[in-house]
Amino acid sequence: MKHKVVVIGASGTLGKALTNALVEGGHEVVRVSRSAGDYRADIQHKQSLDILFKAIGPFDAVANAAGDVVAGPLEQLTDENYAFALGNKLMGQINVVRAALPYIADKGSFALVSGVLTDEPILGGTLGTVVNGGVEGFVKAAAHELPRGIRINCISPTVLTESVAYHPYFPGFIPVDGWKVAKAYERALFGVINGRIIRV
């Protein structure tokens, strides 16, 4: 069955892998990012998301591959670092769901993104661990309250094979190929699971 899927963060490494997999699967993909794609939006600004979904109109699913945090030693993190990370990857994704709800189809689905730091902290990754845990908590709780049979799940990948610049920060971690993470998104979007964290 063909679905209309909004991919946010479509120009990033993960977003490109996901978009390619969805197109190959015969789905209609609406590409969204801050600087390229079919539409522009920044998840850190809810008004931007409200405008985005109103412009797109009806769709079947939203796959989010966007969200930034700040890395650095705990004692050096500033109020601004915390505000940015919480406002971007955590509240940004929560606001994606809030803004999209009026337009998503009955029995539609959301797939958000967290990451391996939820369970496996690294040096300098405190904010990533905090934010990822918040995203996963939101997904588990929201799954019980979304209306009209809408589902929500979360993808938690480790460092991507393609993201070579990040490998030194994840010593001993085995990278995962982007296409494998894209498969996890497909399972979340088109399967039957709800409120699940899919670790890849």
Secondary structure layout:
Elements: E1 4-8, H1 13-24, E2 28-33, E3 39-40, H2 46-56, E4 59-64, H3 79-100, E5 104-113, H4 126-142, E6 151-156, H5 178-190, E7 197-199
Parallel strand pairs: 1-2, 1-4, 2-3, 4-5, 5-6, 6-7
Helix pairs in contact: 1-5, 2-3, 3-4
What does this structure look like?
The longest helix has 22 residues, at 79-100. The chain has 200 residues and is of the alpha/beta class. It has five helices and seven strands. The protein has a single domain, classed as NAD(P)-binding Rossmann-like Domain (Rossmann fold, 3-Layer(aba) Sandwich), CATH 3.40.50.720. Strand 6 (151-156), helix 5 (178-190) and strand 7 (197-199) form a beta-alpha-beta unit. The protein has a seven-stranded parallel β-sheet, sandwiched between helices. Helix 2 packs parallel to helix 3 (79-100). The protein has helices at residues 13-24, 46-56, 79-100, 126-142, 178-190; strands at 4-8, 28-33, 39-40, 59-64, 104-113, 151-156, 197-199.
Strand content: 15-25%
Average pLDDT score: 97
Instruction: Find the count of extended strands (DSSP E, 2+ residues).
Output: 7
Question: Approximately how much helix is present in the residues?
Answer: 25-40%
Q: Strand count, sense and closure of the main sheet?
A: 7 strands, parallel
Here the CATH topology equals Rossmann fold
- The dominant shape is globular
Number of helical segments? 5
Class inferred from helices and paired strands: alpha/beta
Distance N terminus to C terminus? 25 Å
Protein name: Short chain dehydrogenase
GO molecular function, one term: oxidoreductase activity
Organism: Chryseolinea soli
Family: Belongs to the short-chain dehydrogenases/reductases (SDR) family.
